[in-house]
Amino acid sequence: MARFLLVHGSSHGAWCWRDVLPALAARGHEATAIDLPGHGADDTPPEGITLGSYVQAILEALPEPAILVGHSMAGVPITQTAEEAPERVRRLVYLCAYRPGGTGDSVATLRRRQSEQPLLPAIRRDPGRASFHFAPDMSRDLFYHDCSDAAVEFAMANLCSQAIPPQAEGVRLAGRAETVPQSYIVCGEDHAIPPAYQREMAAALPPEDVYERPWSHSPFLSDPEGLAALLDRIAQG
What we know:
three-stranded antiparallel β-sheet; Rossmann fold; six-stranded parallel β-sheet; 10 helices; globular; alpha/beta
């Protein structure tokens, strides 16, 4: 049995893991999903959210060591969490996620390194300019193109605005996160983070710790059983 903590990406929340949690439990694992500040049931104003507050929320959800699974932008805060408390993290799993390579890397800087920018046309700044949301008419193709209509309806009803400050803040790394085992899951049909860039970020890991599946950006909704099976495989080493 492994213990998992599932951390969502931009504009999502714990809700996106609803079908993965029982699938992991059916395989004998203990799994929890959290809302980062400003997401889901957490109503922290975007102006008050930092990368540090994301990390603090993750640490508070780790009473015991666990495998941290970070989706998309969550690759950055799970890395900083492992840097600050490596003894609390059994393994980092990057699910089509931004993986920092050194101090100063942030969601924003990592995204700008992509040769393609599929997300930019869909970003809409909110009043006050401390957060943004994704254009609803573009979200299905970006995130959920291989999901059922019911899953897309569920997701669209739950998407929220995304605070900008924690995405602009860079990690501070001194080698402690590198002591934690890491895996990368490349989603080969991703329309949000180009698969070629995912492979580039994953190239820093041993080949046996890199997995690729023909999934969109949201396998937790399109293939939760397949994702749970792969996480089970990773947990078993």
